[in-house]
Amino acid sequence: MSFYGLINGTEKSLLQFLNQLSGVDQVGAESRAAMLATRSIKTTSKKWAIDTAISMVDLTTLEGADTPGKVRALCSKAVRPDPTDPTVPSVGAICVYNDMVEIARTHLDAIGGKHVRVAAVSTAFPSGRASMEVKIQDTQDAINAGAAEIDMVIDRGAFLAGKYGMVFDEIVKIREICGEKAHLKVIFETGELVTYDNVRKASYLAMLAGADFIKTSTGKVAPAATTPVVLVMLEAVRDFYTLTQRKIGVKPAGGIRTTKDAIKQLVLVNETAGPDWLTPQLFRIGASALLNDLLMQRMKMSDGYYASPNYVSID
Amino acid sequence: MTTKKQPRVDVKKTYKLFINGAFARSESGRVFEVSAKNGDFIANPALASRKDLRDAVTAARAAQSGWSKATAYNRGQILYRIAEMLEGRTEQFESEIALTSQITAAKAKAQVTDAIDRWVWYAGWSDKLQAVSGATNPVSGPFFNFSISEPQGVIAIASDVSFIDFIDAIAAAVVSGNTTVILVPGSLAVPAMTFAEVLATSDLPAGVINILTGSLDELAPWAASHMDIDGFDISGINKKKHGELKVAGAENLKRIHAFGNGQSPSRILAFMESKTVWHSVGV
Amino acid sequence: MTFEYAPAPESRAIVSIKPKYGHFINGSFVAGKKHFPTINPATEEILSLISLGGVSDVDKAVAAAQKAYTKTWSKLSGKERGKYLYRIARILQERAREFSVLETLDNGKPIRETRDIDIPLVAAHFFYHAGWADKLDYAGLGHSPKAYGVAGQIIPWNFPLLMLAWKVAPALATGNTVVLKPAETTSLTALLFAEVCQQAELPDGVVNIVTGDGSTGAAIVNHQGIHKIAFTGSTEVGKKIARAIAATDKKATLELGGKGANIVFDDAPVDEAVEGIVNGIFFNQGHVCCAGSRLILQESIADEVIEKLKVRMSKIRVGDPLDKNTDLGAINSKEQLVKIKELSAIGDGEGAQRWSPQCNLPDKGFWFAPTIFTGVTQANRIAQEEIFGPVLSVLTFRTPQEAIDKANNTPFGLSAGIWSEKGSRIFWASQHLKAGVIWANTFNKFDPASPFGGYKESGWGREGGKHGLAAYLKNGKETGAK
Q1: Chain C residues touching residue A268 (CB < 8 angstroms)
Q2: CB proximity C112 to A under 8 Å
Q3: How far apart are CA C57 and CA C222, in angstroms?
Q4: CA distance C83 to C131
């Protein structure tokens, strides 16, 4: 079996590939990300950026306390983030646990939100600590319930123990289950991988194994989607495209709460992977609180004065 | 039969230059005469030419890499070995200095013991220079930043006529890893060339110390303008002439210094260059 | 719709530039006789008229500095001197934005750099040296090391206020008084600094600023009343100064030119190395004596790195220096632009391949696109001579020793960079490079605590850190048994 002609699927060939990747200098990566954070964008671009960011949001609820009511409320918000302004785009997807997928799908369809995708976290999210059978079943359940996107977690324990082949095989297996029905996002939990070298390795490992998206974090571990982590992942998708002509998406998740944070992410995308990635097909932001800040900024731009949270719905 | 005992005829030394660890005549074939205080002939040391200087600089440059990269411990031991070799020749130096210089025998004796002790003092500096001259610098950022001192390279020395000053100048330059070309004036040629014999038996790598006897007036301008000399100790040159030497030395921005008498780490550091290295600190 | 950065211009309103400036002598501004214009190199707009200092102006400034040295400054304890430096540091922090904008207007460098690098470092230099003023006994220069007296300081146009800080802060901390001449094209921030001295109530005559050209600088160098020269500028002028003071007792520190080698090994962190290459040569339009102007690439990764470098270079934003998104500003002067163009043309003539990204350069002002030359060899002039502009010469090597040999094959010895993920190789390379400042996996970093200065023809002495103090102090009595 060949994976993009880069490895043959054996652990040996995978190791060879990962070991020849260049390292990441932490200081250099962080200073580049910090420098890009100083960019400011045009007012006209800013409106476009806010709408683009809204369309990239994977509106997320991943709580033990999630109920059908909570999920339905989130669906309404996802389809029409600002009920008073029909020009506000819908978000990219809503992201829930797999037992909520059916409720979400049904409700979205009922309220005119067929275009909003449902993403399910999978493979024993967030820890990934379960047998392969459970992970497969978890994924299958979500797809059966109508999930169009699977956000799987990698086995960080295996990764940190150097069992790259095992992590790789899991992703390949889940990719198979997803088939044509669902996009696969692979979550690294970068806060547990710790080093940028690991983030780069995990990025290539996941891309080689068939990921459609690589995603930073579960949202349960800090630090999550820091700008340098996203920078390193964007470099990986950029270089992977050069190698394979295939564009892989990137999803930062966790810690992106303000419009300023979101625009920083878009600047990173623009300057690293390039403007081709500035689309919900290739860039998503996993968030919950962010959406309201984007809406408030949008109001400020159209009204000319600062907005109040009283005018945006809490969910 | 009786044999009449004849006075023994001394076997006298032919004076040469000391270049690249070997004793060589001046390429010019020239010599000059050194006499005792009472006017008696002592020796015909070689009168080094600018071409001899050129050869000595070539030798010093070739020796630079090895000597500067030798461990400090190794350099220290070699300097100490020079002291050991000098000690064994104390009487010879005393008599040569007393004979050829204007100082008394007692002072000559003191100079020689001082010279031996000086080598011991300098030997000990080799592995302490970094501790007193280096630094780790607390820069504002994720960097490990440190400064170390390195030898400048090839140092020319226009030595004062005094033997102890000659020793100070050489030892201060070489202890850090510089290689040297020493220009020796007048009657100092006699103990200086005996000192070359000490060096030849001191495990000192060839080319680290090269000794040219002759005229400072003739050689110093050539040394000052030589583009492959990094530093120039002009302590033995009359202050009135410092300006013209410094003008010539400006062509490659030579580090040119003159020192008062005495031993000091600042004299060693004058022919060292500080290097600061930044390294990013990350995981 | 596309994603575009805003022209995000920093407001000029924060600075008020006078139509004409005099010299700052003995605590007040003194009208000059002749004047010359100083322009904004990004627009060629005349910003103000600057006084052309002559011998008599220098005489007055030196006399004021001498008097201040004898009567007040040398009598003040280190503790009290230090407080003046702390005051200056704080006022500079308060007025940082004003200084940033003024520096950008007068120099042409991007506001991002003046705001984030130049001016913060200026304040940091005063703050750092303030603390030394009462601790000089611990500087390794013996007991009670003494100031020289009046320091004559001549600074360049590439980092106008930062170079002032590098000169003035250690001079004052060590108890010297100062006559400083800013560069001809960039006097404005030095003159604004004079106001800071007034606000800090620095005693009159401790800092004197005489503006002018090379002739003004020569008058300072040759002045009998000056005991120490500190110069940053070209190697050519540095050598002239060395000759001018050869027959005097004046001490000198010289920070001169460079042709820094930025060495990238095959195990380098490539993306960060590319950033380091860009920062090494395009920071401050390449007007940096320690710029990484020679990229020395391991041949096995040369194609990959050059490709990535080109992609990265096409993201460099050239234009209005006051725009917060600008990466590369204006060339400081027409004269410098001509020099950059001439040397680049020589590169073409030598058969090197020139490449620049597409960029629209403004019609007015002095501009040069970021440029790399590949296929450069040691024998090329663009591998040997300092271009002092945004022009990078790319060479390759096969073995580590070859990299070092190429890096050292120059009369300069100011800076070098090493990119490798192998610790032992970094230490090996840093030991073998003949350069005063070496950056490993970074480049163009500066700090008041870090000594800066060059080997060989890159100059004499160090500025910054403990080592920099030696430039302004006569050794005190040495302690310890002998």
Answers
A1: none
A2: yes
A3: 14
A4: 9
Sequence-ordered list of residues with C-beta below 8 angstroms from that of C323, at least 6 positions apart, any chain:
C7, C8, C9, C10, C110, C111, C317
Does the beta-carbon distance from B283 to A195 stay under 8 Å?
yes
Report, in angstroms and rounded to the nearest whole number, the Rg of chain B calculated over CA atoms.
21
Residue C246 with chain B: CB contacts under 8 Å: 242-247, 250
Q: Is B44 exposed, middle or buried (0-12, 13-18, 19+ CB in 10 A)?
A: middle
Continuous segment of H or E residues that includes residue B275? strand B272-280
How, if at all, do strands B135-136 and C251-255 pair? Answer: unpaired
Residue A179: closest CA among A218, A156, A147: A147
Residues of A annotated as catalytic are 151, 215, 251
> Which chains have 3+ CB pairs within 8 A of C?
A, B
Residues of chain A with C-beta less than 8 angstroms from the C-beta of C324: 38-40
Catalytic sites of C, residue numbers: 255, 289
Handedness of CA C462, C464, C469, C472 (dihedral sign): positive
b vs e for C130-163, b when ≥16 Cβ sit within 10 Å of the residue's Cβ?
bebbbebeebbbbeebbbbbbbbbbbbbbbbbbb
Neighbours of B139 (CB within 10 A): 20
Cα–Cα distance for residue pair B219/B158, rounded to 1 Å: 9
Alpha carbon of C79: minimum distance to chain B alpha carbons (Å): 22
Residue C286 backbone class (left: φ over 0; alpha: ψ -120 to 50; beta: rest): left
Contact call for residues C155 and C127 (beta carbons, < 8 A): no
**Closest chain B C-alpha to A25 CA, distance in angstroms:** 7
Per-residue pLDDT of chain C (482 residues; tens, 9 = 90+): 567 787 778 888 999 999 999 999 999 999 999 999 999 999 999 999 999 999 999 999 999 999 999 999 999 999 999 999 999 999 999 999 999 999 999 999 999 999 999 999 999 999 999 999 999 999 989 899 999 999 999 999 999 999 999 999 999 999 999 999 999 999 999 999 999 999 999 999 999 999 999 999 999 999 999 999 999 999 999 999 999 999 999 999 999 999 999 999 999 999 999 999 999 999 999 999 999 999 999 999 999 999 999 999 999 999 999 999 999 999 999 999 999 999 999 999 999 999 999 999 999 999 999 999 999 999 999 999 999 999 999 999 999 999 999 999 999 999 999 999 999 999 999 999 999 999 999 999 999 999 999 999 999 999 999 999 999 999 887 654 44
Q: Would you list which residues of chain B are within 8 Å, Cβ to Cβ, of chain C?
A: 121, 132-133, 135, 137-141, 143, 145, 147, 152, 230, 242-247, 249-253, 255, 262-266, 273-280
